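Sorry, explain these tokens?

___
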Amino acid sequence: MLSSRDRLLMAINHEEPDHVPLSFKWIMRTFLNDRAWRDQFERADWELRLGLDPILDLAYSPAWKLSPDVKVKIWREIVPGESYPLLFKEYCTKFGVLSQVVRETPDWPHDEYVPLWSDYMIPRSRSIKYLITNMEDVKTFSQLFNEPTEKEDEAFLQEAEGIRRFAHKRAVVVENKTLRMGDAVAYFMGIENMILKSYRNPSLIHDLLDILLEWNMKYLGQILDTGIVDIVNYEGWSESFFPPGPYKIFMAPRVKKLIEMTHKSGAKLCYGPRTPSDDLFNYFKEMGVDIFWGPDPVQGNKDLSRLKKGFGDRICFWGGVNSYVTLGTGKRRQIERATTEAIRILGPSGGFILSAIDSLDKHTPWRNIEHMIRAWRRVGKYPLV
């Protein structure tokens, strides 16, 4: 019987292992069935007992830390004419001040705090002022982050060693999710502004992405130097909002640099734009993307057969079953049918890891997860019939 690690790596390399791997991403769900997970190691052991293929996360903890020279101010105001209180945040650097203003709507999840990264700041309905609006802001932004200290890197290497020992003993895969470029641009200026400025002020987008690429490559180097990461998980959800032309200009060359750096270490890169077009998939093949996280036939409106036929010879697909609709609200037969269809379409010749897209959270009924697991056990063994 193959180990979980061998099974996943065979699938990524477009080989047929003993059965289709099933590897979930658990978001905001700290339990499996009715027991709490104390940490990712206990979670991995629980998944292995179920026959699933867990993946450990090695987070580069010193990443995206503000420089000690940066002074942060946050305050709240009631402003006449505004339906909700406003939250103000300033990053004061020696090159200038970056400021952000958001509405504290009832669904704002961060209390009276304004984080650096948050999906809740992307909509124009919530952000009155984005962090970056002009070239001066980009120059100021370049001073925000600090090089990791020796103490921070020592703590990271100690954590990495603990993960290495566990992963070796259990024969499971290790991934990292530290990297972000296009998503960061969307956080800092909003998706509409990101697209508009790619046409009207391309130098601003280029300069901002160059700063982000430099930091991403620094972090990636530290991650790969541990020698334990099998998959570099690059989160690019917002990058698929770029039309093909701007994507090829702004994102493809930079993402390719991260892919090449990853491949030199022997690791694989998993890329996760939300709903890329076929044109973008053609770029993914050219860039050397190993894994696409996110084929979703429901909310992503993806034709799984078309994906497999057009790109399955080069790209491993990770997903296939919708989480929020199919698993969140579906009946047993719907879930079994969706699971069976994903396996039979994407599974032949390898290049497929079954999962729920995009995650399982605390609202996903456990009985529905069980329906998916049972269907996978029934139809996921090679050779597929």
